[in-house]
Design brief:
The protein has 453 residues and is α+β, with helices and mostly antiparallel strands. Among the domains are: 52 residues, no CATH class; 100 residues, no CATH class; 135 residues, L,D-transpeptidase catalytic domain-like, CATH 2.40.440. It is 19% helix and 18% strand. It has 10 helices and 17 strands. Strand 7 and strand 8 form a beta hairpin. This is Lipoprotein-anchoring transpeptidase ErfK/SrfK. Belongs to the YkuD family. It comes from Allorhizobium taibaishanense.
Length: 453
Amino acid sequence: MQPLWKTGLLVALLAAVSQAALPVAALARSPYTGQNPDTVLITPSGQVLDFVPEQGSVMISRDRMGRTILVDHYGNLVATEMPATMVYGRPNGNRNSSDYYPPAPSGGGYDDEDMTTGGIPQDQPVQRRQLDPQQSDATDTSAYDNAEALPARPSTGMSPSTGAPSTLGSSGKAKPEITALQVFLAREGFSPGAIDGHMGMNVQKALEAWQQKTGETLNPNDTDAIMERLRMNGGLPFTTYTITAADAAGPYVAQIPEDYSLKAAMPSLGYTSTTEMLAEKFHMDEGYLKSINPGVDFTVPGSTVKVVNVGQPHSGRVARIVADKARKQVLAYGEDGQLITAYPASIGSSDTPSPSGTVQVQRVAFDPGYTYNPKVNFQQAGNDKVLNIPPGPNGPVGTVWIALSKPTYGIHGTPEPSKIGRTQSHGCIRLTNWDATELAKMVQPGVTVEFVD
């Protein structure tokens, strides 16, 4: 039986993280004929605007949260007015947004050739990529799977779990003990998907992959042992984060339409809220992030929120990738044949299966756009024309596209990370945005990708 004091300790640690938040002072109305000493202008990139726009060059408006904003005559956001105390009065208040949004490489990734949307060379025949919408299978995505051992996978060398079956999470309520296990696996390089405090199949698959690599056995019910491992590798599973002016300013989009023609008309497919952005930053389910921060206003700079402490992204050189269709998992191996990382994935469906056999990575595109062609892709709504859909984390292929040598197929991100491993795809390999980004930085053209049944 798990010691009650340990469970109580975890719950206490979760509750002890501060929820302090300071109210934002009323924003002053400024004609911008001179700098208001009580406010500063924050650009969409998160920097303090160091000049006052010339009169007539911008228009003064309000965003949907009531903040004063400056927009140019094309409707583009120039800056958001924020209280100066919220920026200069806090040690973490005046950071460059690159701390929060790592810059994407220009062009298409590893190639120097001139690139068009999605990293397709302009001087070569265009190969339209297979889109990968969120098509549900028979799995009920509104509930979390009960954990059970997965079948052995001889093709990948995976073996059934040798640890005790998990008894955590059976009530359907998120638990900090499970979060601790998810954080441990994430730090070890074995992604549980979106961290949510539930013991599902993604967690079980990650645990089995970790056991395969290390040769160790970890009982998911032994919270004491998990906490000891966390203590030796990064500390407590929860930490705090102070929302910055850049976080609050965005820019964010009001909503993401389903229709691709409406998507194509948008300037970007960015985040819709601070909570969505922070959930991806800390590899969390957005609903879980909100649930452990009751009453917190995520739009207020200076607010302190509870988040999970997943550590730094993994690095290395991947030589071989195995896409296991049955397990819905991607496994990355090094040049020495040793398993490096594993990620939950959505891989194909019975109607639109993923390819079989071995292909190669051709190129990598960060922050890719997507070209929808109804003659090559599937029919979406009533769209019968080619559409260029802008990039963004809520784009059809998320924040990364790893093109494969089989035309139209690739490994990519997703706008719905909490559905990874619980839905099917239209043939491609879909990962969470953060997992796809981590993998993309470890591969190069020529890396083999083997699809196994």
